Amino acid sequence: ILDNYGWKAGFVLIPIYIISIISYEIGHYFAAKPLGLEPEFGITHKVYPAVKYNEEKWKALENSSPKKLALVVSAGPIANLVMAVVSLVVLHTIFTTSFISFSLSANILFNFIVGVLHLIPVGKGDGYKFWHFLLLKAQGHTGKLTKEQIIININLARAQGRISVEPDLQVKLSEAQEQVDPYLRLLSRLGIIRGP
């Protein structure tokens, strides 16, 4: 690539990178705006543009409608995938020079990779949040934990060594344990927790 286009490749790749980031954040912005999350453009780490939301409204929506938040966090990657598709259509329908073909191909590749990578549930990024909110919705999350969910969370935290449980609470947990044993056995079989 660099042999054929030299400095022109850098001249194209840097704007593609910048446009991809901006379109990614615009996707988040326009998905959050109608939900009343009061999105604002900001800068993270002093260089990277990002959309910030009203935290109280985010938490309220997380409790009432996690599916809507799944839409907000997936809107950035979806914007990149849309850009890749539009570039692909333009590349194959309009007669272009080889340099424009190179530019469109780079745009397709970059936006596709960014869009797909941001939907993978890794770390605390958009992919993680997207799948987290979808799973909450699939579980019928209403914003309040059931007794069973509380016990599972306590047992998960105990199994991971994050908490120790006082003896009085242990007795209450033991009484309620019969109701959640099937869930815990499943989590154990899946390797998420050790025992019971």
Draw up the topology in text:
Blueprint: H1 2-5, H2 7-32, E1 40-44, E2 48-52, H3 55-64, H4 66-93, H5 98-117, H6 126-138, H7 147-159, H8 167-189
Antiparallel strand pairs: 1-2
Summarize this entry quickly:
With 196 residues, this protein is mainly alpha-helical. The protein has eight helices and two strands, in the order ααββαααααα.
Structure report:
The chain has 196 residues and is mostly helical. The chain has helices spanning 2-5, 7-32, 55-64, 66-93, 98-117, 126-138, 147-159, 167-189, and strands at 40-44, 48-52. It is elongated, with a radius of gyration of 23 Å. It has eight helices and two strands; from the N terminus they run ααββαααααα.
Q: What structural class do helix, strand and pairing data support? A: mainly alpha
Oligomer: single chain
Over all CA atoms, what is the radius of gyration? Answer: 23 Å
Apparent shape? elongated
Compute the separation of the termini in Å.
57 Å
What ranges have pLDDT less than 50 throughout 5 or more consecutive residues?
none
Largest pleated sheet: 2 strands, antiparallel
Q: Roughly how much helix do the residues carry, as a percent range?
A: 55-70%
Strand content: 5-15%
Order of helices and strands: HHEEHHHHHH
- Residue-averaged pLDDT: 77
